[in-house]
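Entry 14. Ran structure prediction on the chain below.
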Amino acid sequence: MLAQLAQVNAGLEAVKGVGSFTLWLPEGAHSARVAWIAAAPDRIRLHVFGLLGQGQLILAADGRCITLHAAADGRFYSRCADDPDLEKVVGFPILVSDLVSLLMGRIPLRTHSRTRVTTDDAGAGGLVLSLGGFWGSRQKITFDAEGRVREVAYFGAAGRLRYRVVLKARCRVDGYALPRALLLTAGNGRRLRLEVSRCWVNPVLKPGIFTLAPPGGA
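Output, C-alpha cells:
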C-alpha cells in the first residue's frame, strides 16, 4: 500500500489551478476565489481574490521562507523555517508540504516505525492503513472498496488529531489524478473546503515565482 501511494502521480513536478474555498473559523465562514501554482515538495504561490475579483492576499513559500501580503491592510509577514505550519498565517494547521502534496493529488506520508491494516469501521468494504511511531498514531489512511484513498487523518503529540482530509471528488488531467474537491477538518474544529474549477499539470515555472518582495521593494 505504501509503495503504491509513493508512486501516485510519478512524473508530476508542478500543478497550477483555480477554484474557490470556504474557511470556517470561530468568528464565522470566509469564502473567496483562489489561484495557485505549486511544485514538489514544498513550494507554492497562492492568490486569494474577493467575490468581485479584487486581490485580497498573496502567499508564497520557496522551501526556505514563507511570505504573505494582505492587500486590505497592507500587512506583510515573512518567516523562514523548514516546512512551516500555516495555522498562524491562514488559520488552518496544515504544513506547506502537505498542502502542496494534496494539490498535486498525492497523500503526504508521515515517518513511522510500525504499520497496521484493519477493516473500515464504516462498513463500506474498505481498509484502514495506520502508521504509528513511538508516541502513538501518526496517520490513518482510509481506502474505499475499490482501493482509492477516501480519507486521511494526521495526528500530533499524544495521538491528538491535527487535521483530517476527505477527498470528495477527483478528476484526471493529462493522465494525472488530481483533486476536484477537498474537505479538511482540524482537531480544533476549523474546516476548510476547496473546490477546484480548473487545473494544469507541469506548467512552466517563472524564476522567482515562489518568492514575494515587500510592497514598494523595501
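The two ends are 49 Å apart (CA to CA). Will compare against last week's run tomorrow.
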